[in-house]
Design a protein that fits this description.
With 714 residues, the chain is mainly α. Helix content is 66%, strand content 1%. A hairpin with a 2-residue loop joins β1 and β2.
Amino acid sequence: MKSILMAFVLVSAGAASVAGVSFGVPDELVKGLSRLGTGAQKQSRVELAQAQQSGQGAQQTQTQDAEAGQRGPVVDESALRYFAARGDTARLNAEIARLRALYPTWTPPENPLAVPVNEDRQLEEMWALYSQSRFADVRAAIARRQQEDPQWIPPADLVERLEVAEKRAALVAASNAGRNEEVVRIGAETPSLLTCSDADVLWRVAEAFAKIDRLQRAKDAYGYMLDNCSDAPIRVATVQKASTVLGYADMQDLLARERTGADGVKEFDGIRSDLARRFVGEGDGDPAITVAPAYLKIVEKLVADEGLASDALLLGWYYLRRDQNAAAEPFFRKARATEDSASASQGLALILLARKMPAEAEEVMYAWRTSSDQAMQTYLAATANLLALDPLPKLDPKVLNRIAQVTLEEKSPETGEQFGWYALAMNQPRTAEEWFSEVLKWKTDYEPAAYGLGVARLRLEDRAGLAAVKQAWGGRSQRIARLGEEDTSGEAAPARRDGAERAVRSERRVPARERTVEERARTVEEGAAGPQRAVRAARREGAVNCRTTTRDPGGLSPVSALSLGWCLMEINRPMEAARAFEAALAGGGRVSSDAAYGQSLAYLRAGLTSEAAVAATKAKLDRSRGAELQAAILADRAVSSFRAQRYRETLVFLDQRSQFRAEPADLMVMRAYAYKNLGMRMDAQRLFEALGETGRQDAIRALAEMRTERNARR
């Protein structure tokens, strides 16, 4: 059997037996236990207590041992009678399991009530305190008894059970406090805790392994329970708990242990729908996951039978992430028809944009543009693409005015630039000049707007204005430096107009810079500075200067295209950088890896989280880069889900993210609010309290709000 966590005790052979099953001891646990002074030569407290109770000479002991060998092991069964007399079935079964583990040849009495009555009233009181989990009081009672009667020795069974109970309490406390290494250590020291009769302890240990990035050990722990525990509710709960910490592939291994009843019903059928939802949701966040068709069909049936918009959205996003727009579109439309939302509208808008239907995308997103940063970026992507259509679209003045208002409010360089070209195409150079000038106020290093400004002034025959643009930008942009140079004849003005017309037509054929769904919350992700450092550090040989000239990456070598990509990232032109990195992917080896990493960063900066996830799969990344990107992508997903009020989905993404990076305070605040909105008020309060102790004002305010709400309900 696999070497898994449940092998928590050191004996001379290096393995332990629990309920008849042997487990190997992980090397790291061996080292930890050795440091704690637990070794093969250490005599157990039970053996010491039994030796003290005997009080006889060596010869008498040998005689008793011989007799015991003939009769079987001497087992203290007083606890059995105590729990049976009080009708405590759970503790009775746990005690039987414990004694069987300690004494494999022992047979439980058919009637525990027939076990001789303990005439020791003080000892009975100690057992009563133990049954109430008042372990400190048991210790105090033992100490008083020994003080009164120095010859009295507490029963070995009581001592052992008391120690195990205290260990269990310590393990639960460590688990509740998030001290996961301590949970694993205590479990290793106390193998008698790790039985199916106390599933909660096994669940806590498995979860602790997951939280210290030991997912294989966590999977083994859950697998042990499915292999050895027979209680149906425990088995179902084990799968449910495992699904919150393990990924799709690991869960398939666990589900392979499913049992089929005599009636042909599979034991996990009752939670199959929830599992399918979770798996498809995980596929939404990771395009590399291919969810089995059976799960997709389950969710499709849920959409048909229950008609929930949330189920339709799961499928819509799953198919959209995989560029299966035709499959995704009906589900987004179904979701909008059932319960219109920003998420449903964003998904449909992206499909409409891919189909070159920006007018419809603008119409879909306008009502939702202010619901989140992602929604606004999706709307602006639609507006920029709409204004860039060729041939020129004839827009309703109402639509044109609302696009202009939003562009000015949001200070969107991309849409503002397209307004400039739109005005030039409508033969309104003065309006175009105003738009390009405004864009340069919003983004002073935005070369396309500077070029447009030069073209507008060329059209207006503003020689001084054009000269000013060329003087400011000529050293950074070759096309601006050459603007108007074709004017060599005497008919200067017509030539300038022709040059400007060609520039307008050429520029309008350039696809608008699309900023689509998943604009990441910059203040949330602690890694925002990391990619900036990576941009500066990653430029290598084949350096290309993108500040003074505009280059087509298709004509460059992969190394030069890679350098161009980093250069464009430095001057904050991520979409152009993404195209350069795409060209660099052909380089192979380290160049391809750097290109995939750079393209992911470029898409993240542009707000294209799904594209960033796809880019990360185009070449093999080292572990640290992969973890960085996954953490950023999952943070975006969590923020998006939270803003869409999908709080359970928010927690799933946050839990997945925590496997790659520690959770920063901002995301912890969001987690606490998700708990609160799901009715998990105690979990929310504990997290807000912990954050409040660090001085976070938002957490302190949240605590005050919760107290006010609690008082109002009284």
